[in-house]
Structures are given as structure tokens and as C-alpha cells.
Design a protein that fits this description.
The chain has one domain. The chain has 3 helices and no strands. The chain has helices at about 1-15, 20-30, 45-60.
Length: about 70
Amino acid sequence: MKHEKMMYDIQRLLAEQDFKNEDELNAFMDQLVGKKIPLPSKKNMSPAEWAKELIFEAYEMYPPEQVHIS
């Protein structure tokens, strides 16, 4: 689940950017290598984004094998 959260955070971060070309995207991604991904403000999240964030937090609180979604 950690990988899914990381990919989700990267997608949100990239969506907030305004890259003019692929070189700008690559330069931005190079800056992220080896660093913690900055998280967007929770106050700017849509209800769907907030719900996903809560699911990720729940998985971090409990071992995945104990989380049951019906």
C-alpha cells in the first residue's frame, strides 16, 4: 500500500505543476530523487482526494491483513 500512496502523491504533485515541455518535467522529477515527496495541503483536497487520503492513513495504522473492506 505504501507504493500506491507514493504514486498517488506523485500524481497529485505533478497535476499541480505547469510544465511547458518534457525537459521541465524531467528537471522537476530529478529534484525529487532521494527526497520526501511534498504533500499538498489537505484543505485544497476534493472530497474524493480526502477519502483516498483517509484510506491510506487507515492502512498505515493497521497491518493490511487486518483491514477488512466489505
